[in-house]
Specification:
The protein contains three helices and 22 strands. The chain is mainly beta and 322 residues long. The strands form five sheets. Strands 1, 2, 6, 10, 11, 18 and 22 form a seven-stranded mixed β-sheet that branches. A five-stranded antiparallel β-sheet has the order 15-12-17-20-19. The chain has a four-stranded antiparallel β-sheet with strand order 3-5-8-7. It is globular and about 55 Å long. The protein starts with a strand and ends in a 49-residue tail after the last strand. The C terminus is likely disordered.
Length: 322
């Protein structure tokens, strides 16, 4: 299980983080939002912003955050973890690999986020592209510790699927989500095409409490019986304490894929916050969307009658994080 340090701890250490990247006004419940200083395309060419925003077509890019994480994070037994914000997948994009620009070809022994300036691959699957305002935050840095105990999780099944029908705008203050159209089922399943981005809404709703965090995970890659999850690229975000509503995800099939409402294509872990002093809860733009749906069920994996292949729970790599 991961244990997240609370916002009061993050506020106290903001001055010990790169001030060019992390700013007090971007402090969230269990993380600090931050954004790119520069964006380059797949050939390494710099994308110049126009009228205060980057206009990006469908494709793969590199985000340059231009700040290195300090040594004290590792020395104090903390693990830095970077998540994409929900604005990304709602607009048809997702953060892929997050890493430090290390001069050592073997990388840093402390982990992929140490040893140089932070960078990330950025994949846009929306055929209409997206706009990103200068100063907008695309990612969130959280600091975690490894804690004991089983991880309660829920099995995520699609309730509806949509395709992108217009460009979205990720702004400094507010996101204008991309227009979508419902993707109709053929018979009792959705027939998905490869290398196409689909916005999935999962059945059920969540309401994490003040001491709970929900994080997308890759357990399904190691759980027997969910083979369709292996045929999907998946992009999502963490669920902050106090968020109320449904969960969504950007999925991209790598092959032709038939998907039904009964298929499990992802899981969400329920983790905890370490000793929060104050009750700070999520109050963001997307609060309450789908909150009237029946609540999701969280339980240890064994309660679902399932088993892991190979590794125990706490050794499975958490998806969409570093």
């Amino acid at each position: 299980m991961k244990e997240f340090v609370p916002s009061e701890y993050l506020r106290a250490v903001l001055g010990r983080l790169p001030t060019s990247v992390f700013h007090p006004e971007n402090l969230q419940v269990v993380g600090i939002d931050f954004g790119p200083q520069r964006i380059t395309d797949s050939s390494g060419m710099i994308i110049e912003p126009k009228q205060g925003a980057w206009a990006l077509c469908q494709g793969t890019y590199l985000l340059h955050f231009d700040g290195a994480l300090p040594d004290w994070i590792h020395e104090e037994g903390l693990t830095p973890t970077v998540f994409g914000r929900s604005s990304n997948h709602r607009c048809g994009a997702g953060i892929g690999m997050v890493f430090a620009k290390s001069e050592d070809p073997d990388g840093d022994s402390r982990g992929p986020l140490f040893g140089g300036d932070l960078m990330a691959t950025y994949n846009i699957w929306n055929p209409s592209g997206i706009r990103i305002e200068e100063g907008a935050c695309l990612a969130q840095l959280s600091l975690t510790r490894k804690a004991t105990g089983l991880v309660p999780l829920t099995l995520l099944r699609p309730e509806s699927i949509a395709v992108f029908a217009g460009s979205g705008v990720i702004g400094r203050e507010k996101t204008q989500v991309a227009a979508t159209q419902e993707f109709s089922m053929t018979g009792d399943c959705w027939e998905l095409k490869p290398n196409t981005g689909y916005l999935v809404t999962f059945a059920g709703s969540v309401t994490p409490g003040p001491g709970e965090v929900l994080i997308p995970s890759s357990h399904t890659a190691a759980v027997s019986g969910f083979p369709k999850s292996l045929a999907l690229l998946r992009y999502s975000c963490l669920g902050d304490p106090g968020y109320r509503g449904n969960l969504g995800m950007l999925i991209v099939p790598v092959v032709d894929l038939e998907l039904s409402p009964h298929d499990v294509i992802a899981t969400i872990d329920q983790c905890r916050v370490s000793q929060p002093i104050a009750t700070i809860l999520y109050q963001g733009q997307f609060q309450g969307v789908g909150a009237d749906s029946p609540p999701m069920r969280f339980a240890p994996l064994t309660d679902y009658g399932l088993s892991m292949v190979g590794k125990p729970l706490d050794e499975i790599v958490v998806g969409f994080s570093s």
